[in-house]
Amino acid sequence: MKILANDIRVGHVLDLNNRLWVVTKREHVQPGKGGAFVQAELKALVGTTKTNERLRSQEAVEKVQLDEDEYQFLYAEGDMLTFMHQTTFEQISMPGDIIGDSLPYLLENTIVKIQSYEGKTIAVSLPDTVVLEIVEAEPVVKGQTASSSFKPAKLSNGERILVPPHIASGTRVVVNTADGTYVERAKD
């Protein structure tokens, strides 16, 4: 669907130069001389490339509509992940590298959102947080203040994170899946 550059918003997916880009920042600029334009910061939907585009206000760009469905993660076999659609129960497999650094936080039976374009999977979105158990934590050092210091700990999925001093082995904690950081102690 064609839209004017003026109508671009943060979060839109655009097809520019035969690649899909997500708009991360957008600014409308009205210079003293010349015509107005839109300065957009774009991130490639596949890969880690970022770019800035300057588009004339009345220039037409192709806005892409992604299909998004909920799937349940079933299992991993080698580097392939298998998911099941929540309503049709159709199973699909894809390589684990599509998830990126969040892969260790993909737990069995987790409901994820899979975005696709023209039948091709583009991205897999995990929930914002997961609950994991601390299996190994260093003992509290006397005199540490809880507000400013953290200690290393090992999660049940094998990842290492920093947690407040009061967290001990066996404690369930909430972890941010985007960057693998401690959020809070899990409510039981």
CATH architecture of the largest domain, by name, is Roll
Cα shape = flat
Fraction of residues in helices? under 10%
Structural class: mainly beta
What spatial order of strands do you see in the largest sheet? 1-6-2-3-4-5
CATH topology of the largest domain: SH3 type barrels
For the secondary structure, the number of strands is: 16
Describe the structure.
This protein is mainly beta and 188 residues long. The protein folds into 3 domains: 2-64, SH3 type barrels, CATH 2.30.30.30; 67-125, OB fold (Dihydrolipoamide Acetyltransferase, E2P), CATH 2.40.50; 129-185, OB fold (Dihydrolipoamide Acetyltransferase, E2P). The chain has strands at 2-4, 13-16, 19-29, 37-44, 50-56, 60-64, 67-77, 80-85, 91-95, 111-117, 120-125, 129-137, 151-155, 160-163, 172-176, 182-185. Strands 1-6-2-3-4-5 form a 6-stranded antiparallel beta sheet, with no helix packed on it. Strands 9-8-7-10-11 form a 5-stranded antiparallel beta sheet, with no helix packed on it. A 5-stranded antiparallel beta sheet has the order 14-13-12-15-16, with no helix packed on it. The chain is flat, with a radius of gyration of 22 Å. The protein starts with a strand and ends with a strand. The relative contact order is 0.12.
